[in-house]
């Protein structure tokens, strides 16, 4: 029997109301559009050696976008090892690499639990693929290295509901940051790599407005665009001109092969830019 | 399950395999041509308790079954739902009376949470990162273009929740991605959802005649066997030397330079548009119009090739058992190689016939070539989709 004498709250959970800034403004998903050039990535801050107890560590922060309620990506990476494998594990002629990526519970709009969910494990697998190509694994037989990344703050729009479905695209940005920060931490730990690997993202986006045609931008923030049609994240070794990990997602017609090639080229360009920051940071540490 | 499961091949065997796969044309251990799939037997509708099911058995003995189950679920309302409706549909009251889904605007989209896909591989934990990677790859392809979840919408208040349970019932003798993808494809084609009897935003009420249940992927009204739109397919493709090899077996994957999983969709709707308009490109003429579908690229993932984890071979020149080690160390880098005997061994020049695990990544051009080869009109993707069309899914 329902209690009719009191005004009860709704039985389930609800979303808090979000008020529009200006009632006269038409509701547009992106408050402000992108103000960077299509080929410019956001500024980033990278520092190695932030965790003294780990054998290598790095911290990466992306610049906040022009929108006040979008936070930048903040990542912290620690590398433990190379250390000997436990006695019980089988012989390995190579270093055994294990990568853990974890969002902090408070990093995203939706709270994340303490256990890694499938998307986080998926990011870990991508990261492993990207790094395994870069590490010279046969210099450390019978040893293992753990790479642990915690995403302290995700790259998300705080406004509820307007950015539904953007989480999938945010993962690409997170992965590119993970690759760059892990590469810095590996260098800090003194693990031999063929080159410094850095991540870059390029996306085919549709802007708000009726007459806009899809265009390719690097380092996209999904909330700045009306719709993301496709994106690719690339891990790239600049001196060898090689790609260690390629992850593409989207919906492209196969007849337009040029579009795919352009996306990849832009992704490589973005990762070259990130690599410049990485090399500069490592140079500062050694000097 | 990781692609990098243990491969029990010696460095000499790996080297032999690598060189025979690098020949033009490549010689594969099982005698297939580079673009040939393993023969398979397939059937659908094997599980009466599901909405749709399929089983595929590859010739190498790997076998998978997929069951699709559907449940009606209440759609979570968002706080600004009313705002959206009032904006897009000024005549809200009339919209209520319009029958069926036509009253809703086409922009109505579903949520990717409506599809739950799980992969079960015997001998591997549920939370094994490789198994999760497989599951994410398959669901990513399915959800890539938002069109699939739109099919699951019943009305504004209710939607179908689809559970796809993918079971590998044989031990994983090869990287099971192509097998699981093809089985999922067939199971989705065979999936039927009960016919809706209620109208508009009423609580859903269904026809209890299973024979009247429509397919999730609608059939061509003139030809009952013909499917208008097809679910995505994920192909595993790898490069060795200058060769591109499809559907590699476990041993072949162990010597891959790079391996990609490419998901493609068959877009029948745009095919008609392009055929109708004069947008037909030169490309389709050269391959003969009519043959070939309009494929679309949905996702690409790099599969970590297990070749990086294989043990390296030791060249005779560096092998102390042959008495050559002294010569190398005195002629080589000197003190450094004295301190690190492994380094001396592995940093040596590539020797013909001595296996060296690949290092670094792949050129972007090579990856591009792999993707091109998948997407080419009348290529392997077309063959696979044609073959799958031959399976009776009714």
UniProtKB/TrEMBL annotation, chain A:
One of its GO terms (cellular component) is cytoplasmic exosome (RNase complex). Residues 41-191 form the Exoribonuclease phosphorolytic domain. Keywords: Cytoplasm, Exosome, Nucleus, RNA-binding, rRNA processing. Signal peptide: none annotated. The keyword RNA-binding applies. It comes from the Eukaryota. Its main location: cytoplasm. The keyword rRNA processing applies. Belongs to the RNase PH family. This is 3' exoribonuclease family, domain 1-domain-containing protein. The lineage of its organism: Eukaryota, Fungi, Dikarya, Ascomycota, Pezizomycotina.
From TrEMBL, chain B:
InterPro entries: ExoRNase_PH_dom2_sf, Exosome_comp_Rrp42_subfam, PNPase/RNase_PH_dom_sf, Ribosomal_Su5_D2-typ_SF. It is found in: Cytoplasm; Nucleus, Nucleolus. Gene3D superfamilies: GHMP Kinase, N-terminal domain. The keyword Ribosomal protein applies. SUPFAM superfamilies: Ribonuclease PH domain 2-like, Ribosomal protein S5 domain 2-like. Residues 79-111 are annotated as: Disordered. One of its GO terms (biological process) is nuclear mRNA surveillance. This is Ribosomal RNA-processing protein 42. It comes from Apiosordaria backusii.
């Amino acid at each position: 029997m329902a209690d009719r004498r009191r005004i009860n709250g709704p039985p389930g959970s609800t979303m808090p109301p979000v008020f529009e800034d200006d009632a006269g403004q038409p509701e547009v998903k992106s408050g402000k559009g992108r103000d960077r050039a299509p080929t410019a990535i956001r500024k980033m801050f990278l520092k190695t050696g932030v965790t003294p107890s780990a054998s290598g560590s790095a911290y990466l922060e992306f610049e906040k976008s022009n929108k006040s309620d979008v936070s930048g990506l903040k990542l912290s990476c620690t590398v433990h090892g190379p250390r000997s494998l436990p006695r019980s594990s089988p012989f390995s002629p190579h270093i055994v690499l294990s990568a853990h990526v974890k969002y902090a519970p408070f990093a995203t709009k939706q709270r994340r639990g303490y256990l890694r969910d499938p998307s986080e494990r998926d990011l870990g697998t991508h990261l492993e693929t990207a790094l395994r190509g870069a590490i010279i694994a046969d210099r450390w037989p019978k040893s293992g290295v753990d790479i642990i990344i915690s995403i302290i703050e995700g790259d998300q729009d705080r406004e509820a509901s307007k950015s539904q479905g953007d989480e999938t695209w945010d993962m690409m940005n997170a992965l590119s940051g993970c690759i760059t920060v892990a590469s810095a931490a590996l260098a800090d730990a003194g693990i031999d790599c063929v080159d410094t690997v850095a991540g870059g993202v390029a996306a085919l986006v549709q802007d708000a407005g009726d007459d806009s045609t899809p265009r390719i931008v690097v380092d996209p923030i999904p909330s700045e665009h009306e719709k993301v049609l496709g994106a690719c994240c690339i891990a790239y070794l600049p001196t060898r001109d090689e790609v260690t990990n390629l992850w593409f997602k989207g919906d492209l017609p196969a007849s337009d092969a040029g579009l795919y090639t352009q996306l990849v080229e832009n992704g490589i360009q973005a990762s070259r830019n990130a690599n410049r920051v990485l090399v500069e940071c490592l140079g500062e540490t050694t000097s | 399950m990781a692609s990098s499961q243990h491969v029990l091949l010696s460095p000499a065997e790996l080297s032999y395999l690598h060189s025979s796969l690098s020949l033009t044309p490549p010689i594969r251990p099982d005698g297939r041509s580079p673009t040939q799939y393993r023969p398979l037997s397939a059937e659908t509708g094997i599980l009466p308790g599901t909405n749709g099911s399929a089983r595929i058995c590859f010739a190498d003995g790997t076998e998978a079954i997929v069951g699709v189950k559907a449940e009606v679920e209440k759609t979570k309302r968002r706080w600004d739902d009313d705002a959206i409706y009032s904006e897009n549909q000024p005549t809200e009251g009339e919209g209520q009376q319009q029958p069926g889904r036509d009253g809703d605007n086409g922009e109505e989209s579903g949520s990717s949470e409506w599809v739950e896909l799980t992969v079960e591989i015997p001998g591997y934990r549920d939370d094994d990162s490789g198994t999760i990677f497989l599951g994410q790859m398959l669901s990513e392809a399915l959800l890539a273009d938002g069109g699939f979840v739109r099919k699951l919408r019943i009305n504004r208040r209710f939607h179908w929740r689809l559970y796809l349970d993918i079971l590998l019932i044989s031990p994983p003798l090869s990287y099971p991605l192509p097998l699981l993808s093809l089985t999922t494809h067939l199971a989705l084609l065979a999936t039927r959802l009960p016919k809706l009897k209620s109208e508009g935003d009423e609580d859903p009420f269904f026809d209890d005649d299973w024979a009247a249940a429509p397919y999730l992927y609608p059939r061509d009204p003139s030809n009952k066997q013909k499917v208008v739109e097809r679910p995505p397919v994920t192909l595993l493709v790898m490069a060795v030397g200058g060769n591109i090899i499809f559907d590699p077996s476990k041993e072949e994957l162990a010597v891959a330079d790079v391996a990609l999983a490419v998901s493609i969709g068959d877009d029948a709707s745009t095919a008609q548009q392009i055929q109708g308009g004069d947008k037909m490109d030169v490309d389709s003429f050269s391959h003969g119009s009519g043959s070939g579908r309009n494929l679309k690229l949905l996702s690409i993932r790099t599969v970590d090739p297990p070749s990086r984890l294989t043990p390296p071979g030791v060249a005779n020149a560096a092998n102390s058992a042959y008495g050559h080690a002294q010569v190398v160390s005195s002629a080589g880098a000197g003190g450094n190689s004295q301190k690190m005997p492994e380094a001396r061994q592995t940093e040596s020049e590539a020797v013909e016939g001595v296996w060296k695990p690949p290092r670094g990544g792949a050129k972007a051009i090579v990856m591009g070539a792999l993707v091109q080869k998948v997407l080419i009109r009348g290529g392997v993707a077309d063959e696979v989709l044609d073959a799958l069309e031959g399976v009776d899914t009714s």
